[in-house]
User: Fold this.
Amino acid sequence: MKNFNLSNSYKAVVIGGSAGSFQGVVKILAQLPKGFPLPIIMCLHRLKHVRNGFVEALSIKSVVQVTEPNDKETIKKGNVYLAPANYHMSVELGNHFALSTEEMINNSRPSIDITLGTCAFAYKDKLIGILLSGANKDGAVGMKNIHERGGLTIVQEPTECMIDTMPRSALAVTKIDHVLKVDQIVQFLKELDNQYR
Amino acid sequence: MLDIDINDLKRISELIYQKYNYDFRNYAMSSFKRRVLRIMELKKLTVDTLIKKLNDNPAFINEFLDELTVNVTEMFRDPSFWRIMREEIIPAIMLNHKQFKIWHAGCASGEEVLSMSIMLKEMGILQDVTMIATDLDVNILERAKSGVYPLKNMELNEKNYIRFQGTGSFKDYYREENGMAVFPKELLMNVSFRRHDLVLGDVFNKFDLILCRNVMIYFNQSLQNEVLKKFHESLFKYGYLAIGSKESLIWCDYSNRFIVVNNEEKIYKKIKD
Assistant:
């Protein structure tokens, strides 16, 4: 098993994904260690006009109930958050979310670049960014932001992805610290969890 | 990549406040930053040239505001919200008043005003309702007044209208002209469009219903708190306030003067003066 040389200095994990990422996210959430010490902030591409159902589907097997935050909601350790339909989701300084209905970015609202980029700004080197399977380049710039602010970057192994455009776009624009299969991401999060025990 | 730090953003909002009396100092930082960066990119400006332009060229401010404020909206956004309006909220208001007043606060390009007009027309009560639609941005108000929208937006609007289960056919509400959808002036006959600043402006009237959906998300919490006080004062007792589906008032000082009428659609009712 890979050893990731982690510390307990991280403050948040942010996950982006699009087409083909659902199974991976379900697996990650199902095997998340109980009492996971960090907030998990997810931005997944989804149908713009279907408000209900997605968070419930993600929660079925998840260790923690997934929630779609309200605007200005405080971010809490151990919670799993999902960007709501048809809103961009930012993280603000001061540890809370801010939602917006600005223009789509990369044809997407929520846009992964916005969530990742604002997390990078707020958490600096205390952030872990994970980008999963997807069919467009949304998230690549966000991963670059995370790397440039000193955070740790992980993409799903492209050969494992249903559609590898998203991780490959990130690999093309920035340094990615780890290229991992979903099972290894699960191991990574377990090792991370151990640092806080 | 273009970037701007918080101190420069503060300098810009301070300058706009001192020189033009628009107050963005309590806007949510993440979106304010994106908007300013967007303007810098569109107009090919650096932080210094942007500040210089704001300082030296007063005519630039309207253009700046037009780009700064978020004007992305769609007709019948959240169809389930509009169904609740039609089936519960409007009938509840009509129990007490045959004629009533609605304020669209932060109406942007007016899609929501038009949605309301279409809904009221289908309910047969358009003539009984007075609407006031306000926005900070004079350019966008002109667009709202015109009732003319790009035809390419109509596909999404029509999808929403169908989910709303409107009684007519959406296409019958507009005519096509040079790639635009032109809505008839009659739909907006009871609407008065006015420039009004939610942040610095005064309370100017009393209403039975205020719609302010996805506007306060651009404000920080202390400003949300202040604006809610203005809405409270602008509502008749037992009047309704509708905010965006992912907004919340629970942390505001005045939240206990309202009750939640519909939590899913974020519709509140003023119960205490």
